[in-house]
Amino acid sequence: MKPVLRATYRLQFHKDFTLYDAVNLVPYLQKMGISHIYASPLLESINGSMHGYDTVSWERIDKDRGGEKGLEALVNALRIHGMGVILDIVPNHMSTNHENLWWNDVVKRGARSKYASYFDIAWDQKENFKINLPFLEKPLSSVLDDKKLFLAYNREQKNFYFSYEDKKFPILWKHINTHFKYHDKTDLSSEHVHSIEDFFSTKHPLHIKELLSKQAYELSWWKLAGDTVNWRRFFDVTSLIALNMDNETVFDHTHAYIFSLFERGLIDGLRIDHIDGLKKPSWYCNKLRERLKAIQKKNSQKLQGEIYIFVEKILNKEEKIPQIWHLDGSTGYDFLEQTSLLFHNPQGEEILTSYWDSIGNSSYNSIQKAARAEKIDTAFNQMYERFSHLLFNALPACGYISKHRVSSILKEILLEFPVYRSYFSDVTRDNQSDIFIDQAFKTVKEHLPEWQHNALEAIKHALTQPVIAGSNLEQAQNIFEALTAPLAAKAGEDTAFYRYNRLLSRNEVGTEPGIFSDTIASFHEANMLRLAAFPYNLLCTATHDHKRGEDGRARLTVLSEPEAAWVPEVEKWFSYHEDFSEKYLSKADQYFIYQTLVASWSFMDLNKTSFSKRLKAYLIKALREAGQTTSWLSPNKNYEQRCLEFVDDLQNSEFMLHLEKYLDHIGPSSTLNSLSQLVLRCTSPGVPDLYQGRESWDFSLVDPDNRRAVDYALLQQSLQSDTSQAELMNSWKDGRIKQWLTQIILNFRKEFTDLFARGDYQPVEVTGTFSNNIVAFSREYDGVKMLVITSRFGFSLGLDHTLRSYSENWNTTELATKGSYKSIFDGKVLSGEQTLCLDNMRGTLPIDVLVKI
């Protein structure tokens, strides 16, 4: 019998934290109330990979992560404690490293490789097709002049290859042997090898050029990848090539080992990375579910229980995962967005927007549209040009469409497309695609001159109609749906999120920064919809991909509260550093740095040297992602150095005292946000997902900072300590209160599993002074009823520095429910014959989870 999913704990596996290391954590996680480890990708990836999303083989567990024996050891330990495993897999792409033998064979043999159909390569693009490999640090001529590319010999594999930096490019033996006429490459003497190496040495660049020209590939400069690459990448990452996962042969080959792990009871469910990268997500998800069910049916006794499948998907506020995919839900970015909107105070929107306008003078919409246009012209230019070419050739000949006009209109559509992608090319369609494409075309039509409307309608019809397999139109549809998602991601979360600095807590994966806040009613509605459609949907507020830690965002959220007085405070900070004028460092970048310090500064045991190093590495990445004052393509080292000097100036001045004083000022309110967010994640419909170590405070920055090692010894020690709630509140800065609340609620979930899996959801109306501060709901199943009370906007609650609220207004705040309820935290009872007065919240932490008695 498989364990029931109650709470997941995401672990990042790599050479420094293996499956064997996780075995030692199982008792701790079980005490925390976790039901499943949610494992990062475990299949073999490139040597030294710290994340596992660069797969080189689908046929084994990575030995650096512990191998299959390590997985068996972990699962054995988990089963003893009644726990399971959800495995993250990456069906969208594989690494282009030479360690990937399938890809290496395609590079070597071209279209004749037996793996040629495995990868999404534009084989039909031109005659004498060569796979473009944009991996050179300089143009090829410069690389040859610098003697950086040379012939090498692998004596174990008895193969020659081109060596360049850390890369190896395969060579067909026949192209070498043209000059030597040796009988067998497997029987070469040392003298033969030396002769070949000498003939193709860097002393003879023309020989190297000739040999290169005969290969199935061409080498090019990495900076031109967006113009030259003729295969689909993961976003714009040239080290990752897309798989043709809609090809049944590819599906079967890549998933055979995964299915064997499931059959042997070594995994209980799957997390699908970047579902929108697949050509046919519906086909894939249903195929996956069908195969897993067939395996389960054959082994019904051993594999009895739910099969959990989740997808990583960024959802528009109005978008839902199609029911026809037959999933258990998403990985939870949608919940992250719903809670983020809930905790931002709408009263702060006008103030913060006005202040940002005085610095950046741009709306989010205009910034992300400009970023999309830039990405179309650079990172995705080749893909866009091919899309435009194929679609033009597929359109019927008429007098109102030209190639240039098609290209121009397509760009407008891409700029306005409101979701990651549509699904017209999939085997099954849902009406959401029609809704969102109608929305995009309507917006484009509004600013197109009337004489172009016929062309626009022809393009819309072409992109949405059923197509003939293999036609230009089918290829155009596929490219459109493969382009919109990476374009949205690279222009949005990887560019505009670093340019639009109104309030950085709204710039997170899965969020819409242009929307500032939302109502309590909207939050309740989202919870009820999730319960009805995906009761096992994961609920996350921190991930391995987040831009800022969940508690750093919760702290920034407080800046939306008028009482935080953020604008006057930050204006003082600017005045302290007038030497860094806008000519020296842009005010927008300074503002970004100030918010980053607010989000990432920790009170406890902070190693100042380590923090400075982390912060500087983050800022270089952030500035280059923004692509305004410096970029990955054209690093402005002088400007970057000025930013680093600014950071040094901040950290070596009295400014840090002002920062810490301000963080003390907003600390109780930000902590209330953090703990309320935690309670909502653990009690709302769905399955709470904890990212490694985030049971304590999380002030991390974007990867790789958010993937640093976790001090599990400290966490285990704090879990074992017998500390009262009052003491934990008094010492909230050490993070133990967060861990304490987490383990109490998760173990309560364990005791009342059906309540959380099947219980109904009822919003509880709040009246009185704090009606806009309190978020309350009940859940009930089989005679058990739970009442959840959380708070927001802590300044107006009058929190003191021990997280207690002594406001007299609790006496006038009531919940529209009745009965007697007992707190699972401190055992206090809340009772009322008609309503529940919250006067017992006075003098304590205004958060509670109670059971009806």
TrEMBL record:
UniProt xrefs under SUPFAM superfamilies: (Trans)glycosidases (SSF51445)
GO biological process, any: alpha-glucan catabolic process
Pfam hit, one: Alpha-amylase
Molecular function GO labels: (1,4)-alpha-D-glucan 1-alpha-D-glucosylmutase activity
Ranges of residues in domain Glycosyl hydrolase family 13 catalytic: 13-461
PANTHER family: ALPHA-AMYLASE FAMILY MEMBER (PTHR10357), MALTOOLIGOSYL TREHALOSE SYNTHASE-RELATED (PTHR10357:SF216)
Listed name of the protein: 1,4-alpha-D-glucan 1-alpha-D-glucosylmutase
Provenance organism: Acetobacter cibinongensis
This protein's encoding gene: glgY
